[in-house]
Amino acid sequence: MNEALTNYLDNHRRTIQVELTKYIHELSIPEQLKESMLYSIDAGGKRLRPILLFASYETYASDFSKVLSSAVALEMIHTYSLIHDDLPAMDNDDFRRGMPTNHKAFDEATAILAGDALLTYSFEIISNDSNLEAEQKVELIKMLANTSGPSGMVGGQILDMQAELNPVSLEELENIHALKTGELVRFAVYAGAYLGNASKDKLQALNDFAYYLGLIFQVQDDILDVTGDSAKIGKSVGSDENNQKSTFPKLLGLDGAIEQKNNYVKKAKNALILADAENSYLMMLTDHFSQRDH
Amino acid sequence: MNEALTNYLDNHRRTIQVELTKYIHELSIPEQLKESMLYSIDAGGKRLRPILLFASYETYASDFSKVLSSAVALEMIHTYSLIHDDLPAMDNDDFRRGMPTNHKAFDEATAILAGDALLTYSFEIISNDSNLEAEQKVELIKMLANTSGPSGMVGGQILDMQAELNPVSLEELENIHALKTGELVRFAVYAGAYLGNASKDKLQALNDFAYYLGLIFQVQDDILDVTGDSAKIGKSVGSDENNQKSTFPKLLGLDGAIEQKNNYVKKAKNALILADAENSYLMMLTDHFSQRDH
Fold this sequence. Notes:
The structure is a homodimer. The first copy, chain A, is 72% helix and 1% strand. The first copy, chain A, is mostly helical.
C-alpha cells in the first residue's frame, strides 16, 4: 500500500475514533449499557464505511465539520449490525477481530440492548447536528434508515439467513450482498457526495459505483475465507466451506470469483470516471478494498 | 367506561391500525420479514401511545394528517421493544396477549431482525412525511430517538433487568419506569402538542403530565398483576410475585400502591390544568388508564 493512502487511512481512522468515543461518552446512561456500547465501538474494525464517506465528501468539498455526524451514525449502525449478527440466534460467533463478541463479554440481553441503543442513537446524532440544515438532516436520516432498514441491510440479513439453508444463484447472491453490505456502502458514498453538493448526475454515477464497491467488499471477503491468513483476518479461515452457505468461490470457483471481482472493479472505476472522481481517494480505495488481505 | 370514550378509542384504534398496515404493506422486502413485522403489529394491543398522541394533538389542533406518521412510528417502536423484550435472553415470554410471541411464531433470528426493522423504519416514515416541514421532522425524530434510545426506553430496560437481581427503592423504581415506559408516553404527549403548535409553557406542563401518566401506566400494571383477571390481561397473574422483581405493591403493599397511583393521578391532572387541557380527552384518558382492568 502506498504511503499516502496509509496516512490517509490512519488520519481518518483517528478522526472517526475520536468522534465515536466523544458521542458515547457524552451520554448520561446506565454504566453497563455505556460500557457495552463502547466495547463494540472500541473493538475497532477498519472503519471502512466512514472513511468512504469522508473520501466521497472530499471529492467535492472540504469543510469536514459537515460530515462527522453522518460518519459516526453510519459506523454506529454498522457496529449494531455486527453485535446482533453475532448473537447465538444469528451467526453464533464467540469472537470477532480476535476479541470476545459483545454477548460473550457481557450477556445476550445487554448485547441486544446495546445494539438497539447504537441504532437509535445514530438517528439522534444526525438530528442534533448544528452544522447541518434541517433539509440536510432529513435527507440523511431518510437515506440512512432506508439503507439500513427492512428495504436495505436488515432485508439482506434475512435473505442471507435463508441462503444458508438453500443454495442460491449468482444473481440471488449479488442481491443478498447488495442489500446486506452494499446498502450501507451506498449510504456512505451518497451522504459524502450529497453533503459535498455533488450534482444529480454525479450522485447517480456514484450510486452505481457504490453498488459495485459493495460487491467488491463481499467477494473479497469470500476469497479471503479461502486463501486468507487467519491471524490477519482475526477469525478462522475456511468457515464458509464448512457450512452450506453460498459464496462467490463456491458458485464460480476461486479463479472465477477473482475474475468476477476484477469485473466489479472495472465497473466501479468506470462509474467513478462518470462522477468526475477519477483522481479522488475513492479510486485508490477501490483498489485497496479489492486487494486487502484482512 | 362512558360511551363517548369508547367510541373515541375505537375510532382512533381503527385509524392507527389502517395506517400501520398500510405502511408495512407498501414495503418491498423479503416475505418472511414482512410477515414477522405484520404479525406483531397485528397482534393488536391497546394502541395507548398513538391514542395519547392523537388526544394531545386534538387538545390544540384538528388537521389529523400531520400526526399520522408520528403515531405510526411510535407504535412501531413500542412493538419492536415488545418483540425484543420477549426474547429468551430477555424476559423469555412464550405468549403475549394470548398469542405466541414473535420468536415462537417465527424464530429468534427473525424476531431480532423484525424488531430492528420496525425500529429503523419508524425514522424513515417520519422523514418521508410530505405533510410536515423539515424542521418538524427533525424535531420529532430527535425526540423519538431520544425517548426510545439509550437515554430513554433502552436505558430503562437495562435498569429493569438489573432490578430483577437487586431490590430497589421507590425512587429507583420510579426512575426505571419513567425511562422504560414513561419516555415513550412523553414522546406521545409532546409530539401531539408540538404538532398542534402548543406554546412552550403548555409543552412544559404536558411534560410533567406525561411523567405522571407513565407512572400511572406502570403502577396499574403492577396492581393488575396482583388483583387482575388473567383472562382479561392475556397473561398469567401473580408472575411478579414469583420472581425477585421490585414492584409498587411489593414496596408499598397493595393499598399503598393504590394510594400512590391516586397521588400520580392528582399530579397528572394538575399538570393538565396548567396546560389548558382540563376539558380534553387527555383528562378522560388519565382516568381510563388509572382504572383499566387489562
